[in-house]
Design brief:
A hairpin with a 4-residue loop joins strand 8 (82-88) and strand 9 (93-95). The protein has 389 residues and is an alpha+beta fold. The chain has helices at 96-106, 112-119, 124-129, 131-154, 161-165, 195-200, 272-276, 282-285, 332-340; strands at residues 26-28, 31-33, 36-38, 40-45, 51-57, 64-65, 73-79, 82-88, 93-95, 169-170, 176-177, 187-191, 210-213, 218-219, 225-227, 234-235, 238-244, 260-268, 270-271, 291-293, 297-299, 310-315, 318-324, 350-352, 377-381. It folds into two domains: 26-177, Roll (SH3 type barrels); 187-381, Alpha-Beta Complex (Fumarylacetoacetate hydrolase, domain 2), CATH 3.90.850. The two termini are 24 Å apart. It has nine helices and 25 strands.
Length: 389
């Protein structure tokens, strides 16, 4: 994938590959799956008019049983000037719109392309607006691709040759993964949502969620985080983000998960000097490119409990944040219920749920991001266990 720094495998990984850890199994959707959500690595570079960080996502691969095509990681992939909705697998990317179209054609459904564009649109945000019907159609499309590959293999043919010609299948090396939600209708974030973070900066625990907005340009892996000359103290914040899948207004806490599409990892890059000179967070959180999200939207059925995830952030090889989402003060249902009391959460809305302790400005001495260094690796996994490198 594109980027200005090489992808760095975890210590202990096999040469040419990345570390992959077995996690607890469960039945959900099409098959039994293991889950690893991943975040990103970024490197500061010099020689640009503006100082820039280059985030590179490290893939901790998901193992699927019985087939790698039964994917529940949705992506926005870029190929030859166009960004489209896809499903990520170990072996390649499935274009969901085109695969659904070809499935309908094979079944003799009239106006297959028109129907596919309505039910499985080629862009992520429009797809999420289709809610459960679109999600079910996407799963049908993935299953169809699986059956096509299996049939080709049975006949001794290339498993993907026909699919490639139709623009249904892409090798991972052919495409660039972008931010999963390129232009979210709302990008909300929560301050002071971990007790340890409130303690380290000596602030009383909040009685209500401290919600603010991030207004700058969103980026994904491989895209530069450009630091304006006006910013002198750039900090990191590794977080879990929740993505809304169903329009939500006045949602009861007990039904909040019904409105969730899935989860992502998120780097809430922060200009501390801009943040702390006033009482409002917006400017310090909103420089263009300071909202960096992982490429994977991991569907909610893969994450039975988003509050049993390990969150780890690294600066180079140093672990600087190491916590669990079980330590959130306000849970995902708390946040959805509280926010939806006063505003409508449209499909595609991203809520970054807060960062644990270990941020740079709270360290003694402060540890801000510097040109020329590898700055961030963060990941979460469902096991609640941090693999030992």
């Amino acid at each position: 994938m594109a980027g200005h720094s090489p992808i760095v495998p975890l210590a202990g990984a096999n040469k040419g590959g990345l570390q992959e850890d077995p996690l607890s199994q469960r039945h959900c959707g099409l098959c039994r799956r293991y889950l690893l959500i991943t975040h990103l690595i970024a490197s500061l570079k010099t020689g640009w008019r503006e100082r820039a960080l280059f985030p590179i996502l490290v893939f901790l691969l998901t193992a699927f049983t019985p087939s790698p095509l039964e994917a529940t990681r949705l992506v926005s992939y870029y190929f030859r000037g166009e960004t489209r909705l896809g499903a990520w697998t170990k072996e390649g990317i499935i274009d969901l719109n085109r695969s659904y179209r070809e499935m309908l054609k094979e079944k003799g459904v009239p106006r297959a392309e028109e129907r596919a564009n309505v039910l499985v649109p080629p862009q992520m945000l429009e797809f999420l607006q289709g809610d459960r019907d679109s999600m079910a159609a996407a799963m049908e499309a993935i299953a169809w691709v699986q059956s096509q590959r299996a049939e080709s293999k049975r006949r001794g043919l290339s498993e993907v040759a026909g699919l490639t010609g139709l623009g249904v299948w892409f090798d991972l090396k052919e495409v660039t993964l972008k931010a999963a939600i390129p232009k979210p209708p709302h990008l909300l974030a929560v301050a002071l949502n971990y007790r340890s973070h409130s303690d380290e900066i000596k602030i009383d625990l909040p009685k209500f969620p401290n919600v603010f907005t991030n207004e700058g340009k969103v980026i994904g892996p491989g895209e530069p985080i450009e630091i304006p000359e006006a910013v002198g103290e750039t900090d990191y914040e590794g977080e879990l983000a929740v993505v809304i899948g169903t329009k939500a207004r006045n949602v009861a806490r007990a039904s909040a998960y019904d409105y969730v599409a899935g989860y992502m990892t998120f780097n809430d890059v922060t200009a501390r000097d801009l943040q702390f000179r006033v009482s409002q967070y917006t400017l310090g959180k909103s420089p263009d490119t300071f909202s960096a999200m992982g490429p994977f939207l991991v569907l909610k059925d893969e994450v039975p409990n988003p509050h049993n995830l390990r969150l780890t952030t690294r600066l180079g090889t140093e672990i600087v944040q190491d916590s669990s989402t079980s330590h959130m003060i306000f849970t995902v249902p708390d946040l959805i219920a509280e926010i939806s009391r006063v505003m409508t959460l449209e499909p595609g809305t991203v809520i970054a749920t807060g960062t644990p302790s270990g941020v740079g400005f709270a360290r003694k001495p402060p540890r801000f991001l510097k040109p020329g260094e590898t700055i961030l690796f963060a990941k979460t996994d469902r096991s609640g266990h941090t693999p030992r490198d």
